């Protein structure tokens, strides 16, 4: 009986030791990955000119980029745009006095944030029991006056497909327009943006924040949602309240910015890399401390087993 118990203890100790060796290997891999990732994020000295140390101040390019929440603001429904088919339309065509409208200002060639915003909206709508075209309308307006209906049509196909309900296509509207119309909408919604040069040096990109508005059936802003991820429950509640002509309350102005930072100054990458490194080292430290305690326990357990075996033989 004693021999059987001793064997069982040995097997258990062996399994625990194997698990801990696997943990050690995983910790080593994690540490190596962190070091390699941090090295990849920060170029070697001399490759890039470092700017001033990162602080809590916004980069100067983001001055004027903001979302002012104009709740209960009447939208300029007579403003003209061009829809994805090339037809001239007025904004008021999407307000029937019965159903609310989900409104967002983006630009369709945005390389960073706008796609995430539209994907976040589409993903949230998949879990809402209401459907575009039937219960509400979706209106996206490009802030880039150079974008064309063909670009808008391509984006519409992309997100209707992503949504997975082709029958809802009539409820999705991707508009383009001239600068006066765009500025009128930006002013009404409190959407601040700044033109920026792209990689080719042309002023074809924009620094902006991410925001989604729910608008009442008569065209008054009822609620803002900031960021790129939206709660399906909040969207559902917002649509219900807006359809009943209720105006919501302001939300916390925690903004997600989209802008192309000057790669020659790389001011943020060093800070990000240091944060990643610190988090990885902390994880490895915790794992190492845990494994040190477990290894010492294994040693004590092995000694106790050997002592039992020696006593049994004696």
Give a verbal description of the structure:
This protein has 314 residues and is an alpha+beta fold. It has 2 domains: 96 residues; 199 residues, Glutaredoxin (3-Layer(aba) Sandwich). It contains 6 helices and 10 strands; from the N terminus they run αβββαβαβαββββαβα. The strands form 3 sheets. Strands 5-4-3-8-9 form a 5-stranded mixed beta sheet. Strands 6-7-10 form a 3-stranded antiparallel beta sheet, with no helix packed on it. A two-stranded antiparallel sheet has the order 1-2. The N terminus is likely disordered.
Tally of individual helices: 6
Which CATH class of the largest domain applies here? Alpha Beta
* Average pLDDT rating: 77
Largest sheet: 5 strands, mixed
User: Structural class from helices and strands?
Assistant: alpha+beta
Helix % is 40-55%
CATH topology of the largest domain: Glutaredoxin
Stretches where pLDDT is under 50 for at least 5 consecutive residues are 1-7, 36-55, 255-273
Strand content: 5-15%
Shape by Cα distribution: elongated
CATH architecture designation of the largest domain? 3-Layer(aba) Sandwich
What's the count of strands? 10
The helix-strand sequence is HEEEHEHEHEEEEHEH
The first-to-last residue Cα distance is 16 Å
Quick overview:
The protein has 314 residues and is of the alpha+beta class.
Could you outline the blueprint of secondary structure elements for this entry?
Elements: H1 2-41, E1 80-82, E2 88-90, E3 101-106, H2 113-125, E4 137-142, H3 149-163, E5 172-175, H4 179-189, E6 193-196, E7 205-209, E8 211-215, E9 221-226, H5 232-243, E10 257-258, H6 269-313
Parallel strand pairs: 3-4, 4-5
Antiparallel strand pairs: 1-2, 3-8, 6-7, 7-10, 8-9
Helix pairs in contact: 1-6, 2-3
């Amino acid at each position: 009986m004693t021999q059987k118990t001793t064997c069982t203890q040995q097997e258990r100790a062996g399994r625990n030791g194997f698990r801990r060796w696997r943990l050690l290997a995983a910790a080593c891999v994690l540490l190596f990955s962190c070091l390699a990732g941090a090295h990849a994020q920060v170029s070697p000295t001399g490759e890039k000119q470092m700017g001033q140390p990162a602080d809590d101040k916004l980069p100067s390019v983001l001055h004027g980029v903001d979302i002012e929440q104009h709740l209960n603001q009447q939208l300029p429904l007579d403003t003209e745009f061009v829809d994805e088919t090339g037809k001239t339309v007025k904004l008021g065509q999407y307000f029937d006095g019965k159903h609310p409208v989900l409104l967002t200002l983006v630009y369709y060639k945005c390389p960073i944030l706008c796609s995430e915003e539209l994907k976040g909206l589409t993903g949230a709508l998949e879990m809402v029991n209401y459907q575009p075209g039937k219960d509400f309308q979706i209106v996206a307006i490009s802030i880039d006056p150079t974008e064309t209906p063909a670009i808008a049509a391509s984006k519409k196909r992309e997100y209707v497909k992503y949504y997975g309900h082709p029958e809802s296509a009539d409820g999705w509207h991707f508009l383009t327009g001239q600068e006066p119309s765009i500025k009128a909408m930006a002013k009404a919604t409190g959407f601040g943006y700044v033109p920026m040069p792209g990689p080719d040096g042309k002023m074809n990109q924009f620094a902006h924040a991410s925001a989604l508005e729910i608008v009442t059936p008569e065209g008054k802003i009822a609620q803002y949602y900031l960021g790129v991820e939206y709660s399906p429950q909040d969207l559902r509640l917002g649509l219900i309240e807006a359809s009943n002509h209720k105006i919501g309350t302001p939300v916390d102005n925690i903004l997600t910015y989209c802008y192309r930072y000057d790669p020659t100054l790389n001011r943020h990458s060093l800070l990000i890399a240091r944060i990643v490194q610190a988090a990885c080292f902390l994880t490895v430290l915790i794992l190492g401390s845990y494994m040190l305690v477990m290894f010492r326990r294994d040693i004590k357990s092995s000694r106790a087993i050997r002592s039992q075996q020696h006593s049994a033989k004696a």
